[in-house]
Amino acid sequence: MQPEPGPSSPCSRASLPNGVCHCLGQRLQGTMGCEPAEGDDTPVTELVDGEVGAPSQPDRPHIARKQDSLRKNRPAFPWFGLDIGGTLVKLAYFEPKDITAEEEEEEVESLRSIRHYLTSNVAYGSTGVRDVHLEMRDLCLSGRLGTLHCIRFPTADMPRFLAMGRDKRFSSLHTALCATGGGAYKFEQDFRQMADLKLRKLDELDCLIRGLLYIESVGFNGAAECYYFADASDPECCHKEPCNLSDPYPLLLVNIGSGVSILAVYSPDNYKRVTGTSLGGGTFLGLCCLLTGCDSFEEALRLAEHGDSTRVDKLVRDIYGGDYDRFGLPGSTVASSFGHMMCKERRSEIRPEDLARATLITITNNIGSIARMCALNETGCGTSSRMRQGSSPLLREPPDGGWGWMVVAACFVLMVCTRAVTRCEAR
Amino acid sequence: MKQTVRRSKMAAPGAQVSPDEPGDAENGRGGSGGYFDHSLRLPSGEIFRNLANAKRFAIDIGGSLTKLAYYATVQHKVARVHSSKHSKAECLYEISEQQEESTRLHFVRFENAFVEACLDFVKGHLGGPDAPTLIKATGGGAHKYKELIEKKLGLRVDKEDELECLIKGCNFLLRNIPHEAFSYCKRSTPRFRFQNTHPDIFPYLLVSVGSGVSVIKVESEESYERIGGSSIGGGTFWGLGALLTHTKNFDDLLALAAAGQHTPVDMLVRDIYGGNYGVGGLSGGIIASSFGKGATAQDGFEAEDMAKSLLHMISNNVGQLASLYAKLHSLHTVYFGGFFIREHPATMHSISFGINYWSKGEVQALFLRHEGYLGAIGAFLKGAKEDEPDQYSWGENYAGSSGLMSTSPELFPVARSRSGTFDMLEMDRLARLVPLPLLRDPQDYVPDSHDLAQDLPACHYWLSCFADSLPGVARRAVASQSQSPDAARRGELFRKKFGEKLQILRQQPCAFGSLTVRSLLDTREHCQNEFHFPDPYCKVKQQENEAALRCYQAVVRGLDSLSWRERQLGLVRGLLAGNVFDWGAKAVTDVLESDPEFGFEEAKQQLQERPWLVDDYDVWLKRLQGSPHHCALIFVDNSGADIVLGVLPFVRELLSHGTEVILAANSGPALNDVTSGELSILTARVAEMDPRICSALSNDQLVVVQSGSSSPCLDLSRLDEALVTEVENRKVDLLLIEGMGRAVHTNLRATFLCDILKVAVLKNAWLAQRLGGQLYSVVFKYEPS
Q1: pLDDT tens across B434-466, in order?
Q2: Which of B140, B163, B288 sits opposite A86 (nearest CB)?
Q3: Omega before B413 cis (within 30°)?
Q4: Residue in chain A lying closest to B330 (CA)
Q5: CA separation for the pair B28, B16 (Å, rounded)
Q6: pLDDT confidence of residue B401
Q7: Nearest residue of B to residue A280 by CA position?
């Protein structure tokens, strides 16, 4: 079972909320409760982004009116969003914190049981995890105040999840579950047959963008959701900086799941999938498992923290004895990922940590390189791409060990040099 | 984890390799870097040929393969004709065989395991005074092997930059070797599509996939830039592959990959979606995550499957990066090189798929037949500036080159058992060759009428046809040198050599570029030259020329007695009848060998009656009634009746109208085609009998020029510079191409800026039938400009 990155590292912090984005996106688009019966064409009510607390809002009466109308139209609890990816299932669950005694009284048993089960645990079974550090508190959604919980479990455990849904009589809540990700299609039948649940399927890229924009707009418990690494090429000074997405377009969104999708986003409704690569998180995890015998994402990352990729990769200086001046490549540039592993002695001496580290760097550098090329291709040589600092991306020094810059504006991985991710993660 | 590792049977039969030694470091195969297994046997006379005359050396040592280049003079026999001293003697001219020196570039590719042995071999065969003192070296291994080379060869090692050599080599090949570049499509027949050689090769993107990947934008010979790269390359395939499958060497990994399936290892779109991802436009079979099932595989994977997945991952990624760079720099031509590709079909397919998928068909992936030699060629050129290699044209010597995929054991058991793991390329220095300025569409000119690899019945027919005629050809070659004691032995070697080439072509029709009748004829000529049969038909040609000269005056008198109108048809019929005498056509040689009395008049009887298969005679006649042409260029064909009784009377008529005539004949012998040397003597002899020819020769109205070719066919994009100068100076407005080889096998569909006559008699029943006619059908194609 390989859940998503653990809570401890900035790196995993950077990539995990992707999934949350998905869930949120589809939550905002669809509804969780009271899906009309089949064949009924009643339009589905949508959750509406609310203001967190909003104490400084001067227009109180307006808000009151708005919340009034929300109350009438908002869907019934529970509010769920499900993103079923290739490797992980991400579940966003909105726990209302403003439940009145009256409401609690009315709450049906199954609903209460679900709420208590989800909120009183941080682990579910052997593989389900609630990422407490990611929960968003004091969130106002469709007029309700509450906490958004982020829960994940391996896609391989879908059957168990479905069994739980059946046992907890989820279907009695007359809920059409909003779901996105490939699994929304793949498991649609299973949901229906095993748990008597109907899925409301939403496109994952639509959800991704909506989720990103939503979290960005409400902020993450008062902090900026997006960040980048400043001074990325200097291990001593490298640090996280908040990043403002108030005027984000055009935006290159690199979604690193099992595979990678790269989207050029021109406005909330106008985007295209520019390209993708099959060398993604699934490749990192899969290769690490095969190479080191580890069996979880956390373990793979922990190994990578303590590894030395130069024992695995062949650098320019390993070939040229130093810099390759003729074409301006510094000696520390990786010339061939896993290049040293062509040699039998080196293979026999290598440690799992080194292999994990090299795998991480190989994959992230490659994503960075492709993303940078896409940014250049899509937005006219990168001038309006989401580069921080520096004028022209072409003139910038490649970060140590990287072949090029990562010009990325992903939901949480912003404008970072890929090496910096791993470095900060290793600190 | 279950890891099945199949040992493939790839040990080279001709060159045995010891099992993996500890310390096999960077070697492709299991052999050791500094250790040599003495069981290496070099087939004598086939590898490292001509070393005694080697002048310059260059070496490119990669991660697994070494490429040695040397420049050598080649002694070979040529037949020369001299005008007979006594003009009334029976002999029209004397033939003598002379030693002549030409220049050849040799390239040999072998595994690093054999470096030491090969250097020893080279040292042992180096020649005397001309032997070099310096060797140019490039490639990642140049550093590592520097001392060894200096010690073994006693040459100073001068290192050259790898990428520069690569680019120089690439430019050289693209300019000089026809059909060097090809696209690869797994689902088409043939899988290889060769590109025309264009004089204008820039700009292009060169993606070198060695241990890592370098992407270079080349805009001219001098101007190029490394615009990017990737660390995920051949080294990653090899290193990761070795870790995952415990298979140590590169070729074995490729063999594993060829036997594997990637679907158990990769997470496909349908593994996530259960089918296609319709909204995103991704079909279910697309790989969503390489090795994406690695985390959930309970029992691990088969080694083959992991190797396949790895190959896909890396080649797709290379293809994607290349298409992104091509798009960013608005380039549509992308050449791939480097050891990762190594002519491996699955790799080429995967890269082509990647490029096509990501560029939506806008960028085409091109590969090079000799990509393995780019670095060695470049290093050689760097050291050979004073020989001015750029001032010449070069041609691939088919007899001494291994051809595409020569080291693939599945494809070439024959070649492999002969030469082991050695692959060779030889290029002959030619005169500077330039395109005919009269071509209407020089960029799209393809000499050959037929790509046999696209036409299986035709391919089968012609390969059998050449194989069937081989014993007779060999016999005639031996007979032409009856005084030579070793002629029979050489004849046998020729028969074997060409037989092997045919065998290779049967298995891999694209081994030497597009397979055409021309390439087959040229290969045969090259093989004959290889064994010192420079001109097997010299005596036949001599006899035929003499016999024809004796009839010349009677033929001319006969024509002169006709009315103008009758004479024009008579001249054309004479041209056609002469063209029947072709020793390249089996139907004709059978007749000529069995009936010594078969002559010009008999040939006329064989001709198809009008209307001919292609009959533009009436249009031609009408044109003749108009103002005469200013200058005619005639590419002539056979000796004897063809040139003397067919072409010369036709020329005589043109001259009498005031038209200037350039007679273009082969520079060197091919079959019974008349060479420019022979033609000069023949025209001089005719001039003695014919005042009109005599005055035309003396006042320069008639000239004989060599074409630059030694082929029975004709590539109008590669002609002798002097001929092209004549064409330009004299303002040629009529072109006549004569004979099956020049006007049917090649140039049948070529279009020109001047009036063009294509005249041939179909002396091959199969071809005639293909064209809708029968044996001795006539093609008389006239196209006004």
Answers
A1: 999 999 998 889 999 989 988 889 999 999 999
A2: B288
A3: no
A4: A377
A5: 14
A6: 87
A7: B289
- Residue B264 neighbours by CB distance under 10 Å: 15
Q: What is the pLDDT confidence band of residue B40, given thresholds at 50, 70 and 90?
A: low
A72 touches chain B (CB under 8 A): no
Q: What is the pLDDT of residue B408?
A: 58
Least confident of B22-36, B226-240, B305-319: B22-36
Q: Please report, for residues A166, B558, B628, the alpha-carbon distance to residue A243 in angstroms, rounded to integers and kept in the order given.
A: 43, 99, 83
Amino acid A8: pLDDT: 33
| B422, B401 Cβ separation under 8 angstroms | no
- Which helix (H) or strand (E) is B756 found in, with range? strand B755-762
- pLDDT for B112-166, tens place per residue? 878 888 888 888 887 666 678 889 999 878 888 899 999 988 889 999 988 899 9
Of B63, B272, B280, the CB nearest to A86: B272
Instruction: Give the pLDDT of residue A388.
Output: 34
| Count of C-beta atoms within a 10 Å radius of residue A344 | 18
Distance CA B375, CA B380 (A): 8
Beta pairing, strands B631-635 & B734-738 = parallel
Helix axes B141-153, B115-125, angle to 10 degrees: 40
Domains present along chain A, CATH in parentheses = 10-211 (3.30.420.510), 226-308+352-427 (3.30.420.40), 313-349 (no CATH)
Q: Is A181 in the B-facing interface, judged by CB distances under 8 Å?
A: yes
**Which pLDDT does position B35 carry in this prediction?**
35
Of A203-212, A349-358, B358-367, the range with the lowest mean pLDDT is A203-212
Through-space distance between the first and last CA atoms of chain B, rounded to whole angstroms: 73
Task: Read off the amino acid at residue A239.
Answer: H
Q: What is the distance between the alpha carbons of residues A92 and A130, in angstroms, rounded to a whole number? A: 10
Instruction: Say how far apart CA A328 and CA A324 lie, in whole Å.
Output: 6
* Contacting residues of A for B292, CB less than 8 Å apart: 86-87, 258-259, 278, 280, 282-283, 286
pLDDT of amino acid A289: 95
- Rounded mean pLDDT, B723-735: 97
3-state secondary structure (DSSP) of residue B98: strand
What is the pTM (predicted TM-score) of this model?
A: 0.83
Could you tell me the CA-to-CA distances from B420 to B27, B35, B117, B122 in Å, in that order?
17, 19, 14, 17
Which segments of A135-187 does DSSP mark as H helices, in order? Answer: 158-167, 183-186
- What are the angstrom distances between the C-alpha of A22 and each of A211, A221, B511? 6, 19, 53
H-state helical runs in B437-537: 456-479, 487-507, 517-530
Three-state DSSP at A425 gives helix
- pLDDT in the model for residue A377: 77
Residue B147, both tokens: 């001392």
Q: How far is A413 from chain B (nearest CA, A)?
A: 19
Cα angle, residue A160 at apex, residues A159 and A161 outer, rounded to 5°: 90
Task: Tell me the CA distances in angstroms from B722 to A68, B655, B705, one per residue in order.
Answer: 95, 22, 8
pLDDT of residue B97: 77
- Rounded to whole angstroms, the Cα distance separating B289 from B272 reads 10
ipTM: 0.80
Distance to chain B for A234, nearest Cα, Å = 22
